[in-house]
């Protein structure tokens, strides 16, 4: 549901105009804000916009982590995004299992209309239940990680303060290749795709593919069954990401997870000045 995926019909009336924002059969009015952006509100979210995306994006030109982040106010935050079913929640579980014995962790999950992913983490004992929050984002899950991030900031800051967290994990609701995290929300961004969508996915680009700090290509064990060529995916991932890091993984089988953990901890050390335990 990137800005390219929406169909907008504009009718100008003075300084304000309305459009049809097609989310199934729902329609929402929109208006131009003082900053010139077109805003709308629906599904209980605060007003937000959908920034136009004019290119696939470049890893080398991605938004850098905020240099003035006070990690006493909110712990180092890892954002995990990707389309539905690629393995985001499985990766959340695996990261918790790898890190929870040495680090203070807490997690926030996003679903569109349920709390299923948070309940999955609780059911599988990823962390004590009180360290997990489940957020229902409504019909534009990318807005909750990129534009109107307040729905995630609240629980993340609360968990950080309650448990003196070292690392916070924030899982996006399943979304498309244009869904990337705001740097206000995520200090380190992981984007996860899987081979079932075909070996064309890396070359399709979009901010998730090109600008995440780490790209994970999951479920490599089924590549042959779905006709995906891992060599093509490797070639295209290297090209689309300007050589930025990516990991082939089978998260459910713990293949590649330790490499992902190492990337996260390297970024945590660099950002916070702490040393891994």
Automatic annotation (TrEMBL):
Residues 1-26 are annotated as: Disordered. Keywords: Chaperone, GTP-binding, Nickel insertion, Nucleotide-binding. URED, UREF and UREG may form a complex that acts as a GTP-hydrolysis-dependent molecular chaperone, activating the urease apoprotein. Required for the maturation and activation of urease via the functional incorporation of the urease nickel metallocenter. It comes from Musa acuminata subsp. malaccensis (Wild banana). Belongs to the SIMIBI class G3E GTPase family. UreG subfamily. GO terms for biological process: protein maturation; urea catabolic process; urea metabolic process. Residues 12-24 have a biased composition (Basic and acidic residues). Residues 1-11 have a biased composition (Basic residues). InterPro entries: CobW/HypB/UreG_nucleotide-bd, P-loop_NTPase, UreG. SUPFAM superfamilies: P-loop containing nucleoside triphosphate hydrolases. GO terms for molecular function: GTP binding; GTPase activity; nickel cation binding; urease activator activity. The keyword Chaperone applies. Residues 77-247 form the CobW/HypB/UreG nucleotide-binding domain. This is Urease accessory protein G.
């Amino acid at each position: 549901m990137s800005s390219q995926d929406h169909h907008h019909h504009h009718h100008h009336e003075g300084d304000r105009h309305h459009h049809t924002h097609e989310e199934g059969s729902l329609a929402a009015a929109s208006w131009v804000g003082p900053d010139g952006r077109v805003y709308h509100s629906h599904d209980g979210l605060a007003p937000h916009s959908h920034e136009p995306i004019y290119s696939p994006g470049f890893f080398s030109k991605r938004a850098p982590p905020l240099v003035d982040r006070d990690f006493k106010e909110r712990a180092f935050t890892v954002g995990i995004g990707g389309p539905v079913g690629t393995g985001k929640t499985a990766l959340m579980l695996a990261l918790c299992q790898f890190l929870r014995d040495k680090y203070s962790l807490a997690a926030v999950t996003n679903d569109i209309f349920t709390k299923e992913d948070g309940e999955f983490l609780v059911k599988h004992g990823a962390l004590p239940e009180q360290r997990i929050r489940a957020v229902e984002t409504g019909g534009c899950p990318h807005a909750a990680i990129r534009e109107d991030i307040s729905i995630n900031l609240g629980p993340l800051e609360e968990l950080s303060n309650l448990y003196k967290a070292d690392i916070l994990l924030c899982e996006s609701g399943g979304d498309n290749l244009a869904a990337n995290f705001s740097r206000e929300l995520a200090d380190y961004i992981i984007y996860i795709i899987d081979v079932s969508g075909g070996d064309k996915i890396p070359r399709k680009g979009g901010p998730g593919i090109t600008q995440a700090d780490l790209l994970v290509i999951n479920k490599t064990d089924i590549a042959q069954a779905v006709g995906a060529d891992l060599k093509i995916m490797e070639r295209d991932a290297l090209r689309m990401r300007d050589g930025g890091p990516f990991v082939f993984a089978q998260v459910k089988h713990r293949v590649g997870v330790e490499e992902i953990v190492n990337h996260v901890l390297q970024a945590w050390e660099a950002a916070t000045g702490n040393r891994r335990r």
